[in-house]
Amino acid sequence: TIGADFVACNCHKWLCGAKGSAFLYVAEPHRQHMRPLVASHGYLSGFSSAFAWTGLQDVGAYLSLDAALAFWRRMGPPAVRVRLHGLLDEATSLLTSSWRTSLPVPIDLLATMALVELPRIDTGTLRRDGA
């Protein structure tokens, strides 16, 4: 047990998995109240089976999770975080220097995502017809 009643995770965002991969953890006492939105052949075969095949869907994203988790195990979370922060630093430096803008907080306070100030535009030069 992980000590939570429910956990939902977007795996492509937080585990470097394929787009569309995610998981939902439901603690045992709550599983009897959970039902999939679509009933399929596993509906009456237990919690996991009820959610396994809920119609036509591409399961490729889920099948990629083993590789994503193996990557995290092989590299180790600290090394992955350092690499992701380095990529963030490069990306924000490129954007802020190209746009002549800044970050609202120092890069050292950020982990893997950042807000970057957008460049100001002269709205007087915009045309309503889109041309």
Automatic annotation (TrEMBL):
Family annotation (InterPro entries): PyrdxlP-dep_Trfase (IPR015424), PyrdxlP-dep_Trfase_major (IPR015421), PyrdxlP-dep_Trfase_small (IPR015422)
Keyword Transferase: no
SUPFAM superfamilies listed in its UniProt record: PLP-dependent transferases (SSF53383)
Cell cycle keyword on record: no
Domain of life: Eukaryota
Keywords assigned by UniProt, alphabetized: Pyridoxal phosphate
Protein name per its UniProtKB record: Aminotransferase class V domain-containing protein
